[in-house]
Amino acid sequence: MTSKGHLIQSIKNHSVRFDTYDDLGAIVEAAANKQYVLLGEASHGTSEFYTLRAEISKRLIEDHGFSFIAVEGDWPSCFTVNQYIKGFSKTDARMALQDFNRWPSWMWANEEILELVNWMKEYNESAEKQVGFYGIDVYSLWESMEEIIRQLERIAPEDVESAKQAFSCFEPFERRGENYAISSAYYGEDCTEEVIKVLIDLQKKRKTYPKEHEGDLNLEVNSLVMLDAERYYRAMAKGGADDWNIRDTHMVSALEKIMHAHGEGGKAIVWEHNTHIGDARATDMADDGMINVGQILREKYGQKVYAIGFGTHHGKVIASQQWGGAVEVMEVPDAGPGSWEDALHQAGDHNKYLIFNKQNELDFDFVIGHRAIGVVYDPEIEHLGNYVPSNIAKRYDAFLFIDETNSLRPLFK
């Protein structure tokens, strides 16, 4: 265990101050030769987390040949953006982002993402190899089923009726995952057999479906979402770690399918919350039997993975007081005493980053509380559950700290 004074001094010794995007060169270079660069966030509603990730992503794409950005978002909505930035659809960036209409829509339908989408569109218009934008989350069960139907109507009308018949099993649940979870857990009524039947039929014919405009990838990932979302909602009502583990394992599987589609030399940038990209083995998540994207990728790909955590000391954030509730701008209080963010602030009330390596890892080889803010947040009681005990240098390869942050700017009220 280290003393508070030793930690603060270690941060002073090893951190690098940054005042502009131009000061991030060492972070970009450290990640440049990796295959999977994971960019975190300590909340889903902080402007600087998005803008910094965007700037790092732009440099990785322009200067180091990264292939795509994969985000903690729904596949169908993100694929609309992907089609737009690649010129496959006639719309505009703002219209494309309207597909993010499921709560919490502000996570991706915001001004910060709009600026990135416009940049990606412009980049692709002159790029030798286009970059993509994809969602790898698991929640879009009904949207993915609808997209499968639309695709089959266009490319394989002979398969549509059997798919529609199977999907009708989900109609009684009114597009609400919690209804399906309760039905499967307490009444033994689920649609597992129907989902498996459709997936077997799709798999048999997968190679015959057109590849134009990534139609084959769209069908394949929507099918994966359908399979894993059904499993996720079944597990949700049972408690424990299963639903979390199904979700993060799905995100890795979706990421690998996208990577395979991009072929040899593909390189991925992943945007997700710190709780997904920071290795779970370096937190108390492991004690609860939870795994996450960062852990799975490190176990499979080792040194090809580079994870960058993000944090703040105080500021403002977009969140809600309850799931599905009204969005509001909330004050993020000063980080709790003894926390990782508190130490970073006491080491200098300016923005800074740390790159962890063999020379400094012993200076950070201890467990300390690290703040995590979700889409549901109550600043007044954050000390009761918003700090994840973490060995920071083992959880991440680098860390970006923004002393004072501002809230995201939603596109649609």
TrEMBL record:
Any Pfam family: Erythro_esteras
- Source domain of life is Bacteria
Query: What InterPro entries does the record point to?
Result: Emycin_Estase (IPR007815), Hydrolase/PRTase-associated (IPR052036), UCP036794_erythomycin (IPR014622)
> CDD domains annotated for this entry?
Ere-like (cd14728)
Q: What is this protein called?
A: Erythromycin esterase family protein
Species this chain originates from? Mesobacillus jeotgali
